[in-house]
Amino acid sequence: MGQEVVCTARWSGKSVRGKALLETAEILFRGEERLKIPFSSIRGLEAKDGELRLRTDDGLVILDLGDQAERWRTKIANPKSVVEKLGVKAGQPVAVFGKLDDEFMKKLKQQKSAASAKIVDGVGWIFFGVETREGLGEVKKIAGKMKGSAALWVVYPKGQKSITETDVIGAGRKAGLKDVKVVGFSATHTALKFVIPMERR
Length: 201
Description:
Elements: E1 3-11, E2 14-22, E3 26-31, E4 34-38, E5 42-48, E6 51-56, E7 59-64, H1 69-77, H2 82-85, E8 94-98, H3 102-110, E9 115-116, E10 125-129, H4 138-143, E11 151-157, H5 165-174, E12 178-184, E13 189-195
């Protein structure tokens, strides 16, 4: 989940109060009117006097973020890769089940994190790509093979009725896991992190 700030947004002569969210690859603004600003559409970026000024393909957008303006500017100008946001360090082995984004797999390879379809000793990161709630039955099988501080990231589509955050959390908890974090995986998918509760490690 990205950073959230209640603020005023100004664009196209409008001034709207709402909540701005800094996600992995976009800024979302939710108020009486909504905005979605992909990082890829930003042509100019400036933080000044508590304002974040964004020159986009559709014109100028100003967010009154106060002391968060410079922080947001830095994060937008220097975004972390998805692999970094998920916590996988260079060289750490991972287990991968289901289909995951090609770019993500490429990043793992670039940082020499060997990916396997098996959960072997020493694997601290497990990724499971699932597209429908029917596929969540695999979570219980994966959980049964997890040990110690190993973490399972379930990656699923955003905004789909075929699978929701509630479905994913329910599957993890039914498998005896604890949900601890949500991260924007891509423009289309979300990643939800599960771990074994401390008392069972």
